[in-house]
Structure formats: C-alpha cells, structure tokens
Write a structure and sequence with these properties.
With 425 residues, this protein is mainly alpha-helical. It is built from 22 helices and 8 strands. InterPro entries: Cro/C1-type_HTH (IPR001387), Lambda_DNA-bd_dom_sf (IPR010982). This is Helix-turn-helix transcriptional regulator.
C-alpha cells in the first residue's frame, strides 16, 4: 500500500489503486475512459494515469471514480479488510482532514479535546498528542462514537483502527450503554393482545428472524439477495386449495401451534389494525395452481418490540460495542492458547472467520471482520516451501486479549481462559 501525502493540510492522504482494479471495473461496466471521466468530472488523461498506477486519487476523486464504475471506494484501493487504520476510515469516505475535523468540532468530545486538522493528522500518524485529555482513555473513548458516525462505521471498528494506528497508547475506554428494558408502549401493546394474537405475532417474528438468517447466509456465499423490503414480506397464505399449493412455512408454524384455522385472516388483520404488522396481497404464478393471490405479512418495528416485550427477548442494544460475543470470545481464546505455534488451519472455519479473520467481510457491503486473527504460512524444514497455514493472533488480536481478558472473565465465566496469563502479563 503506497501512501502519497499532500503538501497542503487540506490535501488528504492518497493511495494508489489496486493494479488493474479500476480498468477491470470500467470494462465490466462497458465504459470507455472518456465515459468514466465524464461521470467522475475528471479528464480522460487523469483516468488513464489512475488506471496505470502513475497517479493516486485523493478521497473525493476516488469516491467519484467508484461511483462512476458502480463499486465501493474500498474495492479500488489496497486496504485489506480487518487492517484499517484511522486514516483509512477517513479516506474511504472521501473526507479531507479539514472537513473531518470540522465535523468533529461539532461534537462535545471534539470540543473537549480541541480537535483540529493538525491534531487529527497527528492522531492518524501515531505522533504524540499534545493537549489536555489526549492521555486520558475515558476522554479519548468519548471521541469514538462521533468518529464512527462521521465515517459511517461501527464504533468497534473505530476502536480497532485506533489501536492499530497507535499501538503504544492506552486503549480508549468505550463507555457501555445501559441495558434498557422494554418500553411502556411495547408492554402495553403486548398486554392488549389475546392469547391467539400473541401466538401469531410471536411466530411471525420468529419467521422474520429465520428469513433474516437465511439472507445473511446467502450474502456470505455471495449469492444474490433481494432488497430487505422484499424478503421481509413473509408469505402467509395462498388463496387456492391447499391440496394444490400446500402450506407456507408460516402456516406450518401456526399449524404446529394449533391456531391455523378459518379465523387466521381475522387474527392477522387485528394485529395490522394495532400497527404491529402490515398485510399485503399480490399475484404470483404457482407451478401447479397457476396464477394465485398471495397474502404476505411484515412485522413492524412496533410489532417486533411488542413481541420481544412479551416473549422476554433481550432488547437489541449495542451495550459494549468493542466486546465480542461469548461464542467469538471462545474462538479467540482457542487461537490465543495455541500461541506461538498457532492453531492448524483446518481447526477453524466458517462463520468465525467473517467476524475475526483478516481479509474477511461479514456480508457484501457490510463492515469487515475485526482482524484479530490471521492465517500465517509455516515453512517446511529447510524453508523450501509452505507446508501449512496456521491461525495466529494479529498484533491487534494479542492486544485485544491483553486489554479485555479481565472484562471477558467476568462476563463469560463459562469460557475457560486458563493459560492466557502469559499473554496478559
């Protein structure tokens, strides 16, 4: 990754494009250089220089180039997912130092730390920070949410980038968001339902969650995923003989609960009148029954809150965004305990890599993994070839274990951390 630093404070750090990336995207879109140049408000010569790696675009130009060839800016530059620095986060959305500092100055934390373009530049370069509060983790921790909002990424991603950028500094302390219980409105909405309506709302929410998981798995497998506005419309019924069409998945769920009968329509519409679901109809072509009317149902935000309130579901809040789930912490501990040799590559696969491994992304267009572990090549005796790959902690992964093992120990006592003392000391 080549850095080109502008001489002016308002000229942001630029990076050369991945060789061939812009040209490949342009040709896939069926565009000429002149057409890309026109879309990005650049000269055709500039586009040529960018494609040949002879010139590095500044963030605003990179953003226009990416839009011109229908891709994300980070798909054109050489930043590996899970390795982002603070400068990378700013660069990926096309902000200059001056504009980023101007936005930060509007926040309470930015005012407290007196953030300027010069201070932000020093922060990104790992230079000593001068001024009150910069050496206080509780104070710098309050700067993370405004940075996350400006850069359009999760708070934990800013923390990870901060710790990569400034490995010798104390980690900023992320203040926890208190766990809130269900709102009074949600409790009252649930209380207003009879038992049958509660069963229906609960099953609709479970089917919505199941569909959401299916869409998530499709993204991981790089399969096409329809817009959420479409897949959240859950098929409820087909207006045709069940002997020809069978039952929808939601009908099967209700049948197992013993509440699928001729009164189903009245029950669902009662939920709709309360604003808990939305009922729609369209016409589909069924392979057996031909054209039939399909009834779909979508749970609303109010309906989801009411169902969680009544079924004792935890409220979805970002309590401690820098911490891993119990499952992911257990995976990280396995890798940490295998140090320094590392964990054999075949001992770790699937979903954990999309949350922890360098080079992975949680979903198409979603935030990258945290980059806490990476596959490291192990040479055969004599160094003649790579014998295998092993999972090891990255520098950030090791620091994450050191910084947060005590917190994890209290939160997840079931995870056996015996043996981590050598890393933590």
């Amino acid at each position: 990754m080549t850095n080109v630093v502008g001489a002016d404070m308002n000229a942001p750090t630029a990076r050369r494009l991945v060789p061939g990336a812009l040209a490949a995207r342009r040709m896939t879109s069926g565009l000429s250089r002149r057409e890309v140049a026109a879309r990005a408000s650049l000269s055709a010569r500039k586009v040529f220089l960018y494609e040949e790696g002879l010139l590095a675009p500044a963030p605003p130009k990179l953003e226009r180039l990416a839009e011109a060839v229908s891709c994300r800016p980070d798909e054109l530059i050489d930043i590996e997912p899970g390795q982002e620095t603070l400068a990378d986060l700013r660069f990926l959305i096309g902000l200059t130092l001056a504009r980023a500092s101007e936005l930060l100055e509007a926040s309470h934390a930015g005012q407290e730390l007196r953030v300027s373009a010069e201070a932000l530049s020093a922060l990104e370069c790992g230079e000593p920070m001068v001024g009150r509060g910069w050496d206080e983790p509780l104070v710098t921790g309050r700067l993370l949410p405004p940075l996350a909002k400006i850069y359009g990424v999760p708070t934990r991603m800013v923390l990870d980038a901060w710790m990569r950028t400034r490995p010798a500094d104390p980690a900023p302390v992320v203040e926890s968001v208190g766990r809130g219980g269900p709102s009074r409105a949600a409790i009252e909405a649930w209380a207003s339902l009879n038992e049958r309506q509660r069963v229906y709302l609960g099953e609709i929410m479970r089917d919505d969650r199941m569909t959401e998981t299916e869409m998530w798995m499709r993204r991981l497998q790089r399969l096409p995923v329809p817009p959420a506005a479409e897949w959240r419309q859950l098929p409820l019924a087909l207006k045709a003989a069940s002997s020809e069409t069978g039952y929808t998945r939601l009908q099967e769920r209700l049948r197992r609960r013993g509440v699928h009968d001729p009164g189903a329509g009245r029950t669902v519409h009662a939920l709709a009148r309360r604003g808990l679901v939305i009922v729609t109809e369209d016409v589909i072509d069924h392979p057996v029954a031909g054209e039939v009317v399909r009834v779909a149902v979508k749970i609303t935000r109010r309906g989801r809150a009411a169902a969680r309130a009544g079924l004792d579901k935890p409220v979805e809040v970002d309590q401690e965004p820098h911490l891993l789930s119990e499952w992911l912490w257990g995976v990280l501990v396995r890798v940490a305990l295998a140090e320094p040799e590392g964990l054999p590559e075949d001992r770790l696969a699937g979903r954990p890599l999309f949350f922890l491994g360098v080079g992975y992304r949680n979903a198409a267009g979603g935030p990258p993994s945290r980059g806490l572990i990476e596959a490291v090549p192990v040479l055969a005796p004599g160094g003649t070839h790579v014998a295998e790959f092993r999972w090891r902690l990255t520098d950030l992964g090791r620091r994450h274990v050191v910084e947060f093992t005590g917190i994890y120990g209290q939160r997840y006592p079931r995870v056996d951390c015996t043996g981590l003392e050598s890393l933590v000391v």
